[in-house]
């Protein structure tokens, strides 16, 4: 097995994340739990050691009669029961009598699902390393490209496109941070028997839990209660926040792709068709798919909070709901990361259109800079009122702001034309946009490398 941070360890990961959540994959994860349980109990003397070894050796789904197993599951509607019956048959009368010793169905189901989720978690984080690199490249490319910053969907101040991308990096880094921070709370063993009070394991229950947790690379729990699902709900919420971050990026790019703005576009191939009836259209493809899936992932937050409220000491309805949410959200999150990675790497910037749009407010978009210059001689409020008045006259009559400034008695003779022109030039008022973009690029690349170091496995599937 390969070891991951915090004691996590996983088998080789599949080529496609969908393979993690098939029935066969789920059954194998249950068998992995049964094997570890038997070996732990054999080591502690709870069952004969040679029987434990026999059970563990048979915990490979490839050795099962799958059609017969599926038929029995359909009959019993108790998949773990059917699986352990089949396993006992493979182990023979003596060892088979110790299969699933003292455990309950929910112990095995929940633990097996954790093993699946942990593999999906590793795949997602390695894909997010690629997303961070793509965002870093985008911020680097646009670090010095002046564009207009917008607030309330109106021109506000000049920035660089790299600064815009840096805000996406900042948020994506927090998404990764959340996913790493929930690991110790999410990947913990809950294995306390039917209720959680270790009745079937007796005084050896805590030692068994510690041994089993170590074998599976999970953390031990203080209380092995089946009815505390908050950690799984928290994981789904972390994925929903990742969906929100993807949506923010996607929505911004989608708006910037409209003809009225046209500052970016997807680099689609020459054979891609935008519309079946409007030949002139070049509709975005990948960003709309990103937004649709991000909405679905975000929508899982509310039911995840519902699932975290099981009744009494166990509730199958809550268990089924959280299990479905975990499977669906993990697959959706990975698909989102894959699509975002493609979109960022195939995004074409249009600097000429960024400058064109900037010119729509070029005389006034750096008015804050002008105000700060004038405030040195007349105070901030007086400077604000003066600049506001002159811009209003500029918009009404079309007279250039510079000309109005040079005519105004409070300005004329105090500042020369070059000083005022420089203050009004958007290119001279992007603040630290370039520096912020480059710093974010460095951080994105650093954290991407750290993720790869923490999860050193094969490249992400395509």
From TrEMBL:
<dbReference type="Pfam" id="PF00206">
    <property type="entry name" value="Lyase_1"/>
</dbReference>
<dbReference type="GO" id="GO:0016829">
    <property type="term" value="F:lyase activity"/>
</dbReference>
<dbReference type="Pfam" id="PF10397">
    <property type="entry name" value="ADSL_C"/>
</dbReference>
<dbReference type="InterPro" id="IPR008948">
    <property type="entry name" value="L-Aspartase-like"/>
</dbReference>
<dbReference type="InterPro" id="IPR022761">
    <property type="entry name" value="Fumarate_lyase_N"/>
</dbReference>
<keyword id="KW-0456">Lyase</keyword>
<protein>
    <submittedName>
        <fullName>Fumarate lyase</fullName>
    </submittedName>
</protein>
<dbReference type="InterPro" id="IPR019468">
    <property type="entry name" value="AdenyloSucc_lyase_C"/>
</dbReference>
<dbReference type="InterPro" id="IPR000362">
    <property type="entry name" value="Fumarate_lyase_fam"/>
</dbReference>
<dbReference type="InterPro" id="IPR020557">
    <property type="entry name" value="Fumarate_lyase_CS"/>
</dbReference>
<feature type="domain" description="Adenylosuccinate lyase C-terminal">
    <location>
        <begin position="362"/>
        <end position="441"/>
    </location>
</feature>
<dbReference type="InterPro" id="IPR024083">
    <property type="entry name" value="Fumarase/histidase_N"/>
</dbReference>
């Amino acid at each position: 097995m390969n070891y991951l941070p915090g004691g996590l360890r996983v088998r080789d990961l599949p080529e496609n994340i969908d393979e993690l959540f098939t029935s066969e994959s789920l059954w194998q994860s249950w068998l992995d739990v049964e094997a570890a349980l038997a070996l732990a109990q054999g080591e502690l003397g709870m069952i004969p050691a040679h029987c434990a070894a026999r059970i563990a050796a048979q915990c490979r789904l490839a050795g099962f009669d799958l059609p017969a197993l599926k038929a029995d599951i359909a009959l019993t509607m108790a998949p773990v029961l059917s699986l352990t019956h089949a396993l006992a048959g493979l182990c023979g009368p003596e060892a088979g009598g110790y299969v699933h010793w003292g455990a309950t169905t929910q112990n095995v189901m929940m633990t097996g699902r954790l093993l699946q989720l942990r593999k999906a978690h590793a795949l997602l984080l390695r894909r997010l390393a690629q997303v961070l690199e793509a965002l870093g490249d985008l911020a680097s490319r646009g670090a010095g490209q002046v564009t207009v910053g917008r607030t309330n969907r109106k021109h506000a101040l000049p920035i660089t496109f790299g600064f815009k991308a840096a805000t996406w990096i900042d948020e994506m880094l927090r998404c990764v941070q959340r996913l790493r921070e929930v690991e110790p709370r999410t990947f913990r063993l809950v294995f306390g028997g039917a209720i959680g009070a270790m009745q079937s394991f007796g005084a050896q229950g805590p030692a068994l839990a510690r041994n089993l947790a170590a074998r599976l690379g999970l953390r031990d729990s203080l209380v092995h209660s089946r009815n505390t699902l908050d950690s799984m709900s928290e994981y789904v919420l972390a994925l929903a926040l990742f969906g929100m971050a993807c949506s923010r990026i996607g929505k911004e790019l989608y708006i910037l792709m409209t003809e009225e703005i046209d500052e970016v576009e997807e680099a689609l191939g020459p054979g891609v068709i935008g519309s079946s009836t409007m030949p002139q259209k070049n509709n975005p493809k990948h960003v709309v798919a990103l937004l649709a899936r991000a909405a679905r992932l975000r929508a899982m937050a509310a039911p995840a909070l519902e699932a975290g409220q099981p009744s009494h000491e166990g509730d199958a309805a809550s268990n089924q709901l959280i299990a479905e949410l975990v499977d669906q959200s993990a697959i959706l999150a990975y698909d989102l990361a894959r699509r975002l990675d493609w979109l960022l790497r195939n995004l074409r910037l249009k600097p000429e259109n960024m400058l064109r749009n900037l010119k729509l407010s070029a005389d006034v978009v750096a008015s804050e800079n002008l105000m700060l210059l004038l405030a040195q001689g007349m105070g901030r409020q007086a400077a604000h009122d003066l600049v506001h008045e002159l811009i209003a006259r500029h918009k009404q009559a079309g007279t250039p702001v510079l000309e109005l400034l040079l005519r105004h008695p409070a300005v004329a003779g105090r500042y020369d034309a070059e000083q005022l022109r420089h203050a009004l030039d958007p290119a001279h008022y992007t603040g630290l946009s370039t520096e912020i973009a480059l710093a974010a690029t460095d951080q994105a690349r650093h954290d991407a490398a750290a993720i790869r170091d923490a999860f050193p496995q094969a490249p992400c599937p395509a």
